[in-house]
Design a protein that fits this description.
With 274 residues, the protein is an alpha/beta fold. The chain has 2 domains: 202 residues, Spore Coat Polysaccharide Biosynthesis Protein SpsA, Chain A (Alpha-Beta Complex), CATH 3.90.550.10; 38 residues, no CATH class. Helices cover 40% and strands 21% of the residues. It has 11 helices and 9 strands. Strands 1, 2, 3, 4, 5, 6, 7, 8 and 9 form a 9-stranded mixed sheet that branches.
């Protein structure tokens, strides 16, 4: 296994220059720098974002690609993946910040564990300042524990994921379940018999806020989650009983006010993995 790898990072017009600069700065100070960074412009960007990318292209191995119309995350990831030259691909969101040794630790783990095709880790969540962590999203380790956990919650932090491109392409890459495209991909990797894992430490500082909570509530999101659960039942990843239990546990929560959902999210959903 080589230490060369690609970073895959979509960006769209709502991103801010400040967030983008913080993100790319964290890539510039990595102890193991990315061999290439594929930036997918999901639609046209404001001039200030384009200018920021051009400036960073002088400091980082950015390969800027894209198209004029905003087509959503699933399309952007699949489009960008075909431009990733290397087997190892690290996912990155344009508003998050990597720990300085994230890539070194993940690549080393892949080199020492050849059977692993997907690896993530913890994320430290913050509002405005990355040194002011308000919560840590912990995820389980080991394929057995991860598979069990995936039946009720997403067992990977997508912005901290590194995967083997060949495995992802072999199962059809990302599919069009908006809001659940990553979750769905992890389940399909597990069902295909691949080995996966999570490092038990923070790899990425992830930006959160009211918008994140708001995106995870409402009738539209509830319908998408119900569709996702139905697909997993149809694939026999969850049983009929699991489906009913998850329906009554998850769907009503999506319809409650944002403030109450925020309390549930941080009191109950950010507890340590046992």
């Amino acid at each position: 296994m080589t230490d060369k790898f690609s970073v895959l990072m979509p960006i769209y017009y709502k991103e801010t220059v400040s967030n983008l600069n913080q993100c790319l700065e964290s890539l510039a100070v990595q102890t193991l720098p990315a061999t290439e960074i594929i930036i997918v412009k999901d639609g046209l960007l404001p001039n200030e974002l384009d200018q920021a990318l051009l400036l960073w292209q002088k400091k980082l191995p950015l390969k800027i690609i894209g198209y004029e119309e905003n087509k959503g995350l699933v399309y952007a990831l699949n489009y960008g993946l075909q431009f990733c030259y290397y087997e190892l691909v690290a996912r990155m969101d344009s508003d998050d910040i990597c720990m300085h040794d994230r890539f070194e630790k993940q690549v080393q783990y892949f080199c020492e564990n050849q059977d692993i095709v997907l690896l993530s880790g913890f994320i430290g969540e913050f509002y405005d300042r990355p040194n002011d962590i308000v919560s840590i999203r912990r995820v389980p380790e080991g394929t057995f524990n991860i598979k069990k956990y995936l039946k009720k919650r997403n067992a990977f932090n997508h912005m901290a994921v590194m995967f083997k491109k060949s495995a992802v392409l072999a199962i059809g890459s990302y599919m069009g379940i908006n809001g659940f495209e990553d979750y769905d991909l992890w389940i399909r990797l597990i069902q295909a018999g691949y080995q996966v894992d999570n490092l038990q430490e923070v790899l990425v500082y992830a930006r959160i806020g009211n918008n994140m909570i708001e995106r995870r509530r409402g009738i539209t999101y509830a319908k998408k989650e119900l569709q996702f659960l139905y697909i997993q039942k149809k694939r026999k990843f969850i049983s009929n009983m699991d489906f009913l239990l998850l329906f009554f546990l998850k769907i009503p929560i999506r319809l409650i006010p944002s403030k109450i959902l925020s309390l549930i999210y941080y009191i109950f959903l950010r507890r340590d993995i046992k």
